[in-house]
Amino acid sequence: MLLVVGSGQVSSAPFGRFRVFNKTRCRCDRLKAFVSLHRQHLSHIEGSRLVDGPVTWRLRSDESDLKIFKGYNPASPPGGYLYMGVMDVFATIDEVVDLFRSDSPMHAKQYTQRFGRDLLDMAHLYALAAPSDEDSKMVAVTWRAYKKPVPGVTMKRDACLLECHRDFDVNGRRGRVCAIKSIQVASCPDMETELGLVRMTNYGSGHVFVESDRPGYLQLSFLLHGNVARGSRVENFVGNVLKRKDQLTDKAVTRRCRSVTNIDVWLRENRAARSPSMPEHMWIPPSSRHSCFHCLKGFGAFGRKTNCPKCGHVVCGNCIFKWKVSPSESIQVCSKCSLAVPRGPKALPSARSHPQSDVMSTAAWSCVSGYAKSEDMSRYSDTEVGYLVRF
Predict the structure, then answer these.
(1) pTM over 0.90
(2) 224/80 Cα distance (integer angstroms)
(3) Which fold has domain 8-270?
(4) Nearest Cα residue to 270 out of 173, 364, 339
(5) Does residue 374 or residue 166 have the better pLDDT?
């Protein structure tokens, strides 16, 4: 399957030969996107507060390291859903910035392999603000087609989304938000008749990372707020006659919330890829060790001994894991080394992901402020990125 990143381009994905986005309306659409971005107040930061926030949260599921909450907000549009998954991850904001990068062919391929598991197709329409070495802020308009939330019952969905990644400071703590919200642009019309894709509405969803009280950890809140809209006859029958729409939605959205635990794995994979390996001649000889360096469990007569290529210590099979360090390569790294923040020349550049941070108000948070005016549009060109990504 091919993913197209670049407006007006057609992929060889299932919908590629049918969908062509109208780039002649780019200027008008980009202006509308900026106006929408200026007017909207994505309440991700405030909404992610479990106490004293605008949303009343009730515990839906407590699953080991992850807690899933269902939200109730009087201001939410009728028929929508509001869920949030909360967990702590061992990471830095710089690592989060790098994890969500998609501004190069390699990063885009890795991003889609990780975050695109529920996607059928995707197109990057307009780049409104591209990340740079000085500022990691990213604003773009994208189109996404999703797999059936409940196979055999529901229809495939699609959405035209305004996407924003940026840093913030709140109460002296550094944070990062990666948010999406539905937007209407003329160049991305409804495609239900041609492709059978039901246009869903995303009221404001995404990932919120904030430095926690635990040293080295971030609190991750994954918000999902949307409306799947009407669907097929079978779907409407299940919802209207059998009164099971809420049950189906709860099942599908809860499954999406659980997927946030993959972020911890992906962060470890990125660390394993960047941390330097120890020369093999410096590894501890397996024959000289009778117990695991980490858990101290004895190997016994038939226990498997493995050297971690990062630290050189001898560990057991329960303390070493295979991490995917690139789309085509995996290595085995022990559990402790996968938590170590890389140092040295391969470490993440801090300047790229932490420009002068914005101080967020307690009322709401706005993705980008101050350049939604039409006279500012001249600073942005109709940037096209024409590379193809296979996933």
Answers:
(1) no
(2) 10
(3) Alpha-D-Glucose-1,6-Bisphosphate; Chain A, domain 4 (3.30.530)
(4) 339
(5) 166
